[in-house]
Amino acid sequence: MGQSDGAAGIGGDSTDLSAIQNFAGKYPRQLWWLFFSEMWERFSFYGMRGVLTYFMVNQLMMSETVANLQYGATQAFVYAFTFVGGLFADKILGFRRSLTWGGLLMIVGSLILAVDPKAYFFIGIAFNIVGTGFFKPNISSMVGSLYKDDDVRRDAGFSLFYSGINVGALLGGYLCVYLGKGYSWNLAFGLTAVVMAISVITFHFSQRHLGPIGLSPRHGQPNEAKTRWHDWATYLGSLAIIPVLVVMVSKTDFTDAFMYSIGPLTLLYLGYELIKCTPDERKKLAAAMVFILFSIIFWAFFEQAGGSLSLFAANNLDNSLLGLTLDPNGVNNSANSFFVILFSPLLGLLWVALALRNREPNTVVKFGLGFLFLAGAFWIFYATRFFANPRGVTSLNVFTSANLVITFGELCLSPIGLSIMTKLSPKRLQGVMMGMWFLASAYGQYAAGILGAGMSSPVPNATPMDKLLSYTAGYHQLAIYALIAGVVLIALAPLVRKLMGEVK
Ligand code: GLN
């Protein structure tokens, strides 16, 4: 029996799956529960992420280089653990228990940081890594379960869900830095704990509306009671890994070893699962792998936002946006989320409208478009050099227009990627494949740091002008590579579509 089958949900719920999936209108009402739960989780996640580097440099007294590496390691581990979280959800816990467990670990991690962020920094971070691994992929998989296989409204649902992610990211990213810098770091981390608790409580109450969605794969099986210890072993195992993670995250040399091994290991595991698949399932999973591999390139470029582009913002941008005086780093941190919130629902509705006229581009083409937007955005980042004054300071307006273009690229790829993972994976592998999707983000984050370091100016005591020229030359290269990736993907579209079968 798969995750979507089974009998009643928590609290004697008797909603059945078809009643949920045969919803009228544009969005299933359950989507709103998941929207808010994920919104608060992302508030907590991005709140913490937004303060990490700053906190490490100013409170833990790390050098900028070390802080950047630590930051990259944390992000890589966070996204790599989504594979583990997805795997255990598929095999043992089901999406719901995984989510609740992940949420609780995140609350504990934030509370530890709230008590004494300096002393317990890496312990708190390790709890958050494991917690996010259990939470993040599985809530996305549950959104997919709200739809029937052939429902054309699925991409629009993921677009709306993606707005929720960004409302959380925008609020958390801003408020936590504000509290931390202006008042107290304990308060900033305390806020992420409170908000995470709101997320878990929201999810708890959503369960009565979810029918059989997300129940354990053993739910209703004859051996269900006897195998209950599998759940406890998973909980204990995930606690036992935390001390190991504390060591691995605090020494970034381990990150390389980890990143070199986790990818091949997951591929081996997938190979093992493929043996048990039908030829049709195998083809679909091969198509999913094409999307996953291209997304690594996308994130490696996109995630310059947290690295080289934030240094670029600090060194090379003026502070005037459409006549308003604004901090360029603040703009770099928040413009993307702001544009996602603004345009994601509109794009979602555009996909539905096009689908109703049979004119919606297929997923491969949407991905290709994502890369073309990415290329356009990096070309604009490059072109900022033509607007620079002799001191190497250039226009925040031009820079922000690149943020707008990159957001359209993200919207053609990221929510669509979540959606296509749920379409191409057999039910029993939904969590694993969603985990692999996010694992690509881990590799993207990892590669982003390496790319950013490679683009920085090699000149000792580089002037802002040296830095401007060096980074924009790098952005020019990225624009060309993104363009090539987009063209290759669109050229591959007929082949990938064949692998996808009836999935669009
Ligand atoms: N910004 C999105 C989120 O937080 C996508 C992250 C990613 O896949 N790299 O969910």
What does this structure look like?
By secondary structure, this protein is an all-alpha fold. It has a single domain (23-500), classed as MFS general substrate transporter like domains (Growth Hormone, Chain: A). The protein contains 15 helices and two strands. It has helices spanning 17-21, 30-58, 64-115, 121-145, 154-182, 185-206, 228-250, 253-275, 279-302, 308-316, 328-356, 363-383, 396-424, 430-455, 464-500; strands at residues 320-321, 324-325. The protein has a two-stranded antiparallel ribbon with strand order 1-2. Strand 1 and strand 2 form a beta hairpin. Helix 4 (121-145) packs across helix 13, helix 4 (121-145) packs across helix 14 (430-455) and helix 11 (328-356) packs across helix 13. The two termini are 26 Å apart. It binds glutamine. Residues 42, 165, 299, 414, 438, 441 line the site of glutamine.
CATH superfamily: MFS general substrate transporter like domains
Radius of gyration: 22 Å
Q: Determine the N-to-C terminus distance.
A: 26 Å
What order do the strands of the largest sheet run in, or round the barrel if closed? 1-2
What small ligands are held by the chains? glutamine
CATH topology descriptor: Growth Hormone, Chain: A
Strands, total number: 2
Give the rounded overall mean pLDDT. Answer: 89
Structural class designation: mainly alpha
In total, the number of domains comes to: 1
Task: Identify the CATH architecture.
Answer: Up-down Bundle
Features:
504 residues; mainly alpha; Growth Hormone, Chain: A; two-stranded antiparallel ribbon; 76% helix; disordered N terminus
